Structures are given as structure tokens and as C-alpha cells.
Amino acid sequence: MSTAQPAGFNELLHFPVRLSLVSLLTPAAHAEFSYLREATGLSDSALSKQLATLQEAGYVEVRRTGRRATARLTEDGRRALAEHAQALRALLGEALDASQEAVSRTERSG
């Protein structure tokens, strides 16, 4: 088995918290900081740090108006997420297919 990562695999997005954040931001035009905090269970400081990391990469835009902050996924962020998802499918494809076949066989015999 090869340990090489497929094209498009993104170490920055693969980190579970950041993957959760970009997934939450995908359908939204803008998401409130409080919504992201509640959805991820992160503290304010941890969420700020993760959003800053994504912002530095150009994947997220954060807007602050007074004490209110919102975030949105940029086009680069959407593209990076799509490429990462495709890389995960390539990496896991055969394993997922084999796992689904095993589940189907178990359900039929069970």
C-alpha cells in the first residue's frame, strides 16, 4: 500500500476542526461567529485561531462590525474543499466500496 497522498489532498483542511468549519460555511452566504462556536463546541479563542488560520490561507473571509463577526467561505476555500473531498474519495474509494459490500452481505445473511 502506498502512503502517497492523492492530488488535491489538503493538510490544512484535513484537520478535523477546520474541516468542520469549512463544511459549516459551505451552504452559508455568511455565518455568525456565535453559530460556528455553538456548532463546533470551540471556545471563542480556539475558534478565532482556526478562522485566522483559514483566513491566512485565503479560504475564509471574516468580517467584523463592532462586536459582531461573521465568516464566509471564499471561492479559493470552496475549490480547496472540493479538491480535498475528491482526494479523500480517491484515497478511500476501494476501502469504502469493500466496506459497503461487507455490510450488504451481513444484512442479507443476518
Automatic annotation (TrEMBL):
Keywords of this entry: DNA-binding
PROSITE patterns: HTH_ARSR_2
Alphabetized GO MF terms: DNA binding; DNA-binding transcription factor activity
Source organism, top-level taxon: Bacteria
HTH arsR-type domain sequence ranges: 1-103
Coiled-coil regions listed: none
Name of protein: DNA-binding MarR family transcriptional regulator
Natural source organism: Actinoplanes octamycinicus
